[in-house]
Design brief:
The chain is of the alpha+beta class. It folds into four domains: about 210 residues, no CATH class; about 200 residues, no CATH class; about 220 residues, no CATH class; about 160 residues, no CATH class. It has 27 helices and 24 strands. Strands 15, 16, 17, 18, 19, 20, 21, 22, 23 and 24 form a ten-stranded mixed beta sheet that branches. Strands 4, 5, 6, 7, 8, 9, 10 and 11 form an eight-stranded mixed beta sheet that branches. A hairpin with a 5-residue loop joins β16 and β17. This is FtsX-like permease family protein.
């Protein structure tokens, strides 16, 4: 009880100093709890949607893709005959059965030719209005479509895109485009995560979306009263007899589970990525907590000595410090849990801004979330305080009463330095082994080991490095400030362990920033270099939908275009002469002109021969695995097609990343084995301009695609910029998440300086008494902060660039061979770190400047 009272008294006596450490705990716990609440809420939202939209039993064609799987590349969904509905109605327990149509291979534009679909990754869905849709939607304005010129739109899209009844929409599908006026608005009864939904009458949906009458994509079956879904499924299968093998028959639960699996991978990636960044914040927070308690213990040396002198044991002193940590962990964790819920709501609003609607009505806080947050916060805080607590227990009564402070252990420092060197050396060897690896998989293991060991090594050896690095930085930056600069340098070097821990907190976040910057910039530079070397086409046409036959013809007839090349992707099972069969192998079917549009080197044969009749090429790795040579015959069983014997005419090398390992054949060869209605649409169309007419061809192609906003024409400059923008957007998201760790690190600098000022109160008073002005004092503290921040930045950026360069060597094995250091980013981060140091020192410097000189001198 006495220990608890003492701990409570000390905790409240230093509540201002504890506050900054508590903020680190709050932020870390908030990120963990916010991530859990956000991901649970997303799961709840999708679960409700899938449960509401699934009928009691659903029939789909057996070759229809499951939820989340890639659909047919023909631009039209798999279908079943309308006669199936009449058969299903005969089954016992069927209350009703109706044919339904659904397609996500569409783009819907408004009267200004602007895509009204979501921009956040959700689909645009088109289909017919059925009774089953009443489970999840209700018509809140107008009426359902009654003919080919009418369409009904979901209310969320109508609201976001400022659409109303009477407005005209144009739907672009694989079969062509058609227009219709909005006659109805339907509102979701559950949260719509962001999809755009349009409904047509059945005949229009069949004609325009499927290109055939009397066909449906699925059949919705409703059970009669008292009939379970499982019983209904069995009855339907029994009624269909042998024909049941042509369909997938699923209950509502099975359909909902399949849909849930389709989004679970996306949700898991987001969840674990955010938890990873929370872990980084926790790691940085550990340094802040260690520094806080180390300094508090040092400042209470005399008090600890008195406690020991009057009979307190080492365990009691140790326990007193740990109880303070426990109190800090509990308070910080409780606040963090509340902040995490607020963060989750903020993330939901952010997702709504980019197109994914999430309602706070579905906010889900599972019982485990606060428990996890509380346990993490408390355990991490107590563990971080263990070393300072142990050090406090070692204070001898007589040494403490003489104000000797905590015992300095030269042996411990030597062991620490030796251990740090060993860990760093092992980490450097790991990075070297990764860079020298022949296979990316093997090298990635060494890279992970090298990153972990060098990071731990730099943390352990930080106090030793501080003595050298801080002097070097000070020689460049602080000597110009005369005595004030030298005092700032000495203050930073006074306690290398403290400086090392404070700098390490900033080092971690900046090391990751530097590493990712190097990797991202190198990827863009490598892709750009390969485009320059390998791509002969002037223009690339692609978009959110495949290129329809009508568009292909218009592109081919565009003025100033010398030729166009179609690029289609097929799948097949390939049996090689060694008797082995590789299933689901991707094939690239192109026009013969592809050899001009993409320069591919061969290790055997000629690419032009691969585009001959009944011929193909394979990649070098595939050829080595199956001991293939030019002239061999390959048995190719095309998906949704027939089987043929193709001659191996060329073996391509594995250099670069464009079409790495691709297998090529002529489209005319593929057409011999795959019927026209099963032939995939082109994913991409390449175009070559007439010599000297690139600008005219570019303008003409853009005009050709004016009515097709789902597609985009890019020249090589545009394509390179798109790659750069995509990598830049990803890096910006990562930098934003790493900003949490950097904020915690800044708090660490603030806390260290604030406690350091308190620790040096008497010293500051004496300096002021002999003539140091307030301005000089504040400058000294600011310079000390800048040096500590630059020390952390220098270590972090150096470490991160080493990680990034090693990672690039692994990427080089996959064809990304250009290493590019983003010096503007590195320099900006380094300079920015100096401003971070200045900012962190504002409050401590202000408080130091306001000290009363006489009171400061009188301080014990």
């Amino acid at each position: 009880m006495t220990v608890l009272k003492t701990s409570m008294r000390n905790f409240l006596a230093h509540k201002g100093r504890m506050a900054l450490s508590a903020v680190a705990v709050v932020l870390s716990v908030a990120f963990v709890c916010g991530t859990l609440v956000f991901s649970d809420t997303m799961s709840t939202t999708f679960d409700k949607l899938f449960a509401a939209t699934s009928s009691d039993v659903t029939l789909t064609p057996k070759n229809a893709p499951d939820a989340g799987d890639e659909g047919p590349r023909t631009g039209k969904p798999e279908t079943l005959p309308a006669a199936t509905i009449a058969q299903v109605k005969k089954a016992d327990g069927v209350k009703s059965a109706e044919g339904a149509i659904s397609s996500d291979s569409v783009t819907v534009v408004n009267s200004k030719n602007k895509d009204i679909g979501p921009s956040g990754g959700a689909p645009t869905l088109a289909g017919n209005w059925t009774k089953n849709d009443l489970r999840s939607m209700e018509i809140t304005s107008g009426h359902a479509p009654r003919g080919p010129t009418e369409v009904m739109l979901d209310a969320d899209t109508a609201d976001k895109k400022n659409l109303k009844i009477g407005d005209e929409l144009r739907t672009i599908a694989a079969t062509g485009s058609f227009t219709a006026k909005i006659t109805g608005i339907a509102t979701f009864k559950v949260t719509n995560p962001g999809a755009t939904v349009v409904y047509f009458d059945t005949a229009t949906a069949q004609r325009e979306l499927l290109g055939a009458t009397g066909r449906f994509t699925h059949v919705n079956v409703t059970a009669a009263s008292g009939v379970s879904d499982e019983r209904l499924k069995a009855n339907v299968a029994s009624t269909l007899g042998a024909g049941a093998a042509d369909y997938k028959i699923k209950t509502q639960k099975e359909s909902a589970d399949d849909n849930r699996k389709s989004v679970s991978s996306f949700l898991d990636v987001m969840k674990y990525a955010m938890l990873g960044f929370a872990g980084i914040a926790f790691l940085v927070g550990i340094f802040l907590i260690i520094n806080t308690f180390s300094m508090l213990v040092a400042q209470r040396t005399r008090e600890i000595g008195l406690m020991r002198a009057i009979g307190s044991s080492r365990k009691q002193v140790n326990r007193s410090v740990l109880v303070e940590a426990l109190l800090l962990g509990v308070v910080g964790s409780v606040l963090g849990i509340g902040a995490g819920i607020g963060l989750a709501i903020g993330l939901m609003k952010l997702m709504s801004g980019i197109g994914m609607e999430l309602s706070t009505e579905d906010l889900t806080i599972s019982a485990t979330t606060p428990v996890v947050g509380l346990l993490l916060g408390v355990i991490v805080t107590v563990l971080a305080a263990y070393l300072p607590a142990r050090r406090a227990g070692k204070v001898s009564p007589m040494a403490a009463l003489r104000d000797a402070g905590t015992p300095a252990d030269g042996k411990s420092s030597a062991v620490r330095a030796a251990l740090g060197l060993v860990l760093t050396g092992a980490g450097v060897f790991g990075l070297y082994a990764a860079a020298a690896a022949d296979e990316a998989k093997e090298g990635s293991l060494f890279l992970g080991l090298g990153v972990v060991l060098t990071l731990i090594g730099f943390v352990v050896i930080g106090p030793v490095l501080a003595a050298f690095v801080v002097r070097a930085i000070s020689a460049v930056l602080l000597r110009m400030f005369g005595p004030v600069g030298r005092m700032a340098e000495r203050n930073a070097l006074r306690n290398p362990r403290r400086t090392g821990a404070t700098g390490a907190a900033l080092m971690i976040g900046l090391a990751l920033v530097a590493c990712l910057s190097v990797v991202g910039t190198s990827m863009v530079a490598s892709a750009t270099d390969e485009l320059d070397k390998s791509v002969g086409a002037d223009f690339i046409v692609q978009g959110k939908q495949p290129v329809s036959h009508q568009v292909e013809k218009r592109l081919k007839d565009t003025p100033y275009v010398a030729h166009t090349t179609r690029y289609k992707e097929l799948k097949a099972d390939i049996t090689t002469p060694d008797g082995k069969t590789d299933k689901g192998v991707g094939l690239s079917a192109n026009d013969r002109t592809y050899v001009q549009d993409l320069r591919r080197e061969t290790t055997a044969g000629e690419m032009s021969a691969a585009y001959g009749p009944n011929a193909m090429s394979v990649g070098e790795a595939f050829a080595k695995d199956h001991h293939l040579k030019v002239g061999d015959k390959l048995k190719v069983a095309f998906d949704d097609g027939r089987t043929g014997q193709l001659k191996l005419a060329a073996i391509t090398d594995e250099e670069g990343t464009l079409d790495r390992g691709a297998m090529y054949l002529n489209i005319t060869t593929a057409e011999r084995y795959v019927d026209a209605d099963r032939m995939p649409l082109s994913d991409t169309v390449f175009a070559k301009a007439v010599d000297g007419k690139q600008d005219e061809a570019y303008a003409a192609l853009k005009k050709t695609l004016e009515t097709d906003p789902q597609l985009k024409v890019q020249d090589q400059t545009d394509f390179k910029q798109t790659l750069k923008d995509q990598v830049g957007q990803l890096l910006n998201i990562v930098y934003g998440l790493l900003g949490l760790a950097i904020i915690v690190a800044i708090l660490g600098v603030v806390n260290t300086l604030a406690l350091s000022v308190v620790e040096r109160t008497r010293e500051i008073g004496l300096m002021r008494a002999i003539g140091l002005s307030r301005r000089q004092l504040r400058r000294m503290i600011r310079m000390e902060s800048v040096v500590i921040a630059l020390f952390g930045a220098l270590l972090g950026l150096g470490l991160g660039m080493g990680w990034g360069a090693t990672a690039q060597q692994l990427l080089a094995l996959e064809g990304l061979k250009v290493l590019e250091i983003p010096w503007p980013t590195i320099i900006a981060v380094f300079v920015g770190s100096a401003f971070v140091g200045l900012f962190a020192a504002l409050i401590p410097a202000f408080r130091a400047g306001r000290m009363n000189v006489l009171n400061a001198i009188a301080t014990e």
